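I trust your eye. Have a critical look at both lines of this record:
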Amino acid sequence: MADQVDRILEQWQKEKPGLDVSPMAVIGRLSRTALNIESRLAGTFERHGLDASTFDVLATLLRSGAPYRITPAELARESMISTSAVAQRLNKLEARGLVAREANPNDGRGTLVALTDTGKKLIEQALPDHLETERAILSPLSRDEQAALALLLGRIGAAAV
């Protein structure tokens, strides 16, 4: 990966010597790394019959704590899926018996999304494997380096919005 990014930068320097292309070194590596990470995680999810967005919805419900119910708006806000994708995703998860929609006792017109026993069992089985995959990906970095990287990525993420 680094060789390819370096080669691309050298090509730009040759073609446009007066142009500072140094941001491409960071953004290019960040993008390529993200794709590789997504691919590794997808393999872990697949072993459990999941994909990234299904994992995220189930994990969001699990970490919300008992009774593992939140509104669709909270789910969109707390997960890594867009509000427009929530309804579609919930339809698929409900068809698989992983979540259920329930009437919201605090809002007569609203609903809650609840983690079913089947969904809870699945996410509890997948979570340790997911974390192990993430640990393996981060293994070249010390804990201090991981903390520094998390901080730096947070700053980049805030600037990218």
